[in-house]
Write a structure and sequence with these properties.
binds adenosine-5'-triphosphate; binds magnesium ion; ATP binding; UDP-N-acetylmuramoyl-L-alanine:D-glutamate ligase
């Protein structure tokens, strides 16, 4: 039995990753494969898994196809994540990754996902709106499936904030653009630099430009804007402070989900009332630690503490007017 959730993550468009290892496979031929693995994926699923690893009681919702829900259910059971996914007819989208270890390359084939019915969407909205008061934070994560309008997150942010919840948003494209243009912004926004540029419709070529863009979102009602920049680190901005957090060098297994781990770290830092510098260290340690593992898993606490101590946190360059 999982503890009463304090955080809800929302993944409207999860994915099931099917990785097939086939050394030397050839197009158009009959090939032998050495093995295959199914991994439940999707940004909010990853955020929930990482929070659960850290010991935060968490629930996950979104839309899940009934036909291939088993790997998700297994993950939730193993991590102790409360499963509040709405089941819908059909299969969750599958991403096939054909890995050739001899060449060291991967071929991706992404199958189409579910098209969401009005009924399923209403069910998801009802789930979001009927959360108990103990759920202090809600993370809206990832892309929106066909059938869900681009303003979905923007609307839910306003409603959830109206209920007094702390809302984190990690999305891209039109969904991010709509949410950033809305009247009510989420308290936490974590775009990567490319997502932020796309949402704002302009390139951000200097640190000063990134800082100015983040400060603009703060002026418009966000409380913490974290602009992640891959290996370089992340810029974290609040109304009072602006910091740059540089990760230590780590041995990378897979950088997939680095940003999701950062979101989980920032949410846990919020729950613990950490300072911005403390949040920067924790979130960067979560990211750097998670990429040393395949899948959304945190390393043991001692390893995370060691990583956090190695994160380089500096004041971001002040704006020159
Ligand atoms: N190669 C790396 N080495 C060390 N740390 C890394 C590396 N790549 C990413 N990170 C850490 O992870 C954080 C988030 O990475 P990134 O900006 O790539 O997120 P993202 O694009 O949102 O990723 P995703 O959406 O795939 O989870 C970075 O700020 C950094 O601290
Ligand atoms: Mg991301």
């Amino acid at each position: 039995m999982s503890a009463t959730p304090r955080v809800l993550t929302v993944t409207p468009n999860p994915a099931l990753d099917l990785t097939v290892h086939a050394g030397g496979w050839q197009r158009g031929a009959v090939n032998a494969a050495q093995g295959a693995q199914q991994d439940a994926g999707g940004k909010g699923v990853n955020v929930a898994a990482i929070l659960a690893d850290w010991g935060v009681p968490v629930a996950a919702t979104g839309l899940l196809g009934r036909d291939n829900a088993a790997p998700f259910e297994t993950l939730f059971r193993e991590k102790g994540v409360t499963d509040e996914f709405v089941r819908v007819p059909g299969a969750t989208r599958v991403g096939l990754k054909l890995v050739d270890p001899t060449l060291g390359d991967t071929t991706d084939l992404n199958l189409p996902g579910l098209t969401v019915s009005a009924r399923a969407l209403a069910h998801l909205q009802a789930t979001l709106r009927s959360q108990p008061a103990g759920v202090g934070a809600v993370a809206l994560c990832g892309s929106l499936p066909p059938g869900v309008h681009a303003g979905f997150y923007a609307e839910e942010v306003a409603r959830l904030r109206g209920q007094g919840r702390f809302v984190a948003l990690d999305t891209s494209g039109e969904a991010l653009r709509a949410a950033l243009q809305a009247e009510v912004l989420p308290q936490l926004v974590k775009p990567n630099i490319h997502e932020l540029e796309a949402a704002l419709g302009r390139s951000l070529t200097t640190d000063a430009e990134v800082l100015a863009a983040a400060r603009d979102l703060i002026r418009r009602g966000a409380e913490l804007v974290a602009v992640s920049q891959g290996e370089r680190g992340a810029l974290l901005v609040t109304a009072q402070e602006a910091l740059f957090a540089r990760p230590p060098r780590v041995t990378v297994q897979s950088t997939v989900g680095a940003g999701d781990a950062m979101v989980a770290g920032l949410i846990s830092a919020h729950l613990d009332g950490l300072s911005l510098a403390g949040a920067a260290r924790r979130a960067t340690a979560f990211s750097a630690g998670s990429i040393t593992r395949l899948g959304a898993h945190l390393p043991p606490r001692a390893e995370l503490d060691a990583l956090a101590a190695q994160v380089q946190v500096d004041a971001a360059q002040p704006l020159t007017h």
